[in-house]
Structures are given as C-alpha cells and as structure tokens.
Amino acid sequence: MTTATVAEAAATDIDALEAFCDRWERAWNEHDGDAVAALCAEDLVYDEPALGETAYGPGSVRDFVTQMAQAFPDYAFTRMGLYGEVTRRAVLVAWRFSGTLAGTDRRVEFHGDDRLELGEDGLIHAYRCLYDYRFVLSRLNRAKTGQ
Predict the structure, then answer these.
(1) Which of 16, 26, 33, 93 would disulfide-bridge 65, Cβ 3.0–4.6 Å?
(2) What is the pTM of this model?
C-alpha cells in the first residue's frame, strides 16, 4: 500500500492506520531518525508541550530521535492503543516509553500520546507529542535516590 493510499484511507481503514503506525513505531524503536523523518512532510509542525517547544520540518524530528538515543540508549516505545479520527486524516497513538538514562542505572517508564495529522501525501504534517514531563523528572529523581 502506498503512502498516498494510507492518507486516503486514514479516516476509514484501520489496517492502513496500523501499517503506518507500525512503521512509525519501528523507526522510533530502531532509533532511526532518518526513517522517522521520512514519514514527515517538509512543512511539519512538531509540537512537544512538555519541553516547551514547537519545531518545524522533518529535520527537527530527526534531531530529536538522535537526542533521545543519546539520552536513553536503550529506549523503546510500546504501542498501547491506536485511535483513528473519523472525520479527518488523523490518528492518536498511545504509547509506553521505557529507557535508562545514559551513564546511570536510572530507568524510567511512562505513558504518552502522539497525535499525528496526515496530509493528502500520506505524510505527517502535524505531530504533537503529549506526556507528563514533571512525572518523568520525578521518576528519574526517584531512581537517582533509590526510592
């Protein structure tokens, strides 16, 4: 199935959504910034409120994957749910993150959601990553103190 077909079917074809999200998850779990970026459009708006930033273009996501791999060399995402929008080309991917902070034994696990809006071209044009940053910091601090 081509990516254009994925975009056309996004609101109605759960198999197409799952296949697209499988590629998204696999690219992240392989720590492959180029593969993640390849799923994003040139006009991507990447919003991560927990970090207080909005970035633009696939290069911003590629850079973030690299930063994640450096900060958490063993990180992995596990998809917990997939929710397709019924009126437009959008999907919410619920996930669980696990990883160990580089150079430490501090392991953290938390959940979050990726909201992906697909364009006619089958690429992600808007990506919003949502999770509780304070919770993540508290888990890392707790792991640091051994609590």
Answers:
(1) 33
(2) 0.85
